[in-house]
What we know:
mainly alpha; 74% helix
Amino acid sequence: MPIWLGYISVGFAYGVLAQKAGLSMLTAILMSVIVYAGSAQLIAVGLFAAGASAASIILTTFVVNLRHLLMSAAVSPHLKEWTKPQLVAFAFELTDETFVLHSSRFVTGDPLKTETFAINISSQCSWILGTWLGFAVGQVIMDVRLFALDYALPAMFIALLVLQIRDRVQVVVAILSGLLAVGLVLLGVGQWTAIIATISGATIGMVLEQWIKR
């Protein structure tokens, strides 16, 4: 439910921005169906509105979504018995939020395929619904920032992070990764911030766990 509500809110913001950028409703909704990548879609419509080339949009969104390689690798050990079509379907709908939810579910035992796909599909449907609602009322809203919808996604991440933390090592990793990400942003690293902070945080966590075991 938190993912659905968060996706409707952020999808709404995307729909408004897509309308302002001059995309048609069909194009905006198809992007949510085919691309289905929140931050990448928001960046893409911004670049589209700025008149960026297709190559620039593709390259930028590719870099932004590189973190999905890490998320897929993290959950792959739990999906060894799945068929290739099932893995493809799962990977297509894997997002930051569903990754956190699935990570919590998978560690408790064998993942139920029906429940897993129900979570993924319903989450994407909520994003598509938000896109449609945002585009539909986009002509009425002059400035989407007044509604603070851009805070919905970070707030949802914070809630999911809190639910994931179980020991002191994870607290340390979360804090250090967050500080590193903020520092990289201030240094102007750009879209590589998430990748660098994620890999660094995972490395720190592994070193700490090995040190504690010894």
